[in-house]
Amino acid sequence: MTRASRENLKGWGVLTPIFLYFILFTVVPVFIMLVMSFTNYGEEIRAGQFAVSFVGFKNYIDIFRYSEYLMSFVYTIIVAVGVVAVGMFCGFFVAVFLKSIHHLRALFRVVWYVPALLSAAVMSQFVNTLIEFDGVVNRIVELFGGTAIQFSNSVFWMYFWIIAIVSWQGIGGTALLFLAGLNSISNDVYEAASIDGVNGAQKLWFITLPLLKPMTGFILITGFMGAFNIFEPVMLVSHGGPDNSTKVILYRLYDEAFINSKYGFTCALSFITMILIMILTLVNLKISDSDIYKMGGKKNA
Fold first, then answer.
1. C-alpha to C-alpha distance for 73 and 275, rounded to whole angstroms
2. What is the pLDDT of residue 29?
3. What pLDDT does 293 receive?
4. What is the spatial distance between Cα 292 and Cα 186, in angstroms, rounded to a whole number?
5. pTM for this structure?
6. How far, in Å, CA of 184 to CA of 178, rounded?
7. Measuring CA to CA, which residue among 108, 84, 111, 85 is closest to residue 97?
8. Which residues of the chain have pLDDT under 50?
9. Peptide bond preceding 242 in cis form (omega within 30 of 0)
10. How far is it, in rounded angstroms, from Cα 301 to Cα 293?
11. Are 88 and 242 a contacting pair, CB within 8 Å?
12. Is 228 within 8 Å of 274 (Cβ atoms)?
């Protein structure tokens, strides 16, 4: 056996388990989900029958026929916009702060990243104790002469707390990404700008933000993609309410599958969600590739 053959054999030996894992736990489940999306699986059991029927595109048509399913995507986008806006704004200034300090820098970076390591379920339950009608927040409101708030009945406050939980957990990761972008900017650029009489605000607007464009685009797209995975705060804090106004797509999937037993319909909704996430991924790759090209990076042939 030649040396090239041995190297190829070693390569296939490493890649084969990965391919098998991908096929067994990604390709096969997606194929099964696609097949089930054309059936009434789950609904026949609820009706006292045990024969799965092929229903064609009925499940997909129902998704676009009934507004409550389309509104789940709207609710997800609302949460995504809030989370991305708050996360990027706060994450950027945290990154600027972390870059500016010189003492205990590693400690501050660890402290800001700790929330990302905490469970969303734990944080949601903690927030629940704060926003109960006789909880800490209302006690503080009453202490300053205000009236206790019934948070669970307010659409605004439910969105506020969901966005707050998710943003607080993600701010550390966003800050580290922005910090990496800031560290990639040469100090020579700022020194040259200082010689030309450019002030701090102008440096931020005309130098820092434009040079952070690739990282900003990456954080923006991945933030929207991550919003499709928001579940625990909705499940434990708002419970999809009030009046289903916070029923984001993942909670809708849970509700249809495990509460309504509409597994076939849930598979159809999951497949559409997967397509949307794939589109966002392609957009992210396109933006990243174009930004690298504009900045002079080399493309692979």
1. 13
2. 92
3. 44
4. 17
5. 0.84
6. 10
7. 108
8. 292-293, 295-301
9. yes
10. 13
11. no
12. no
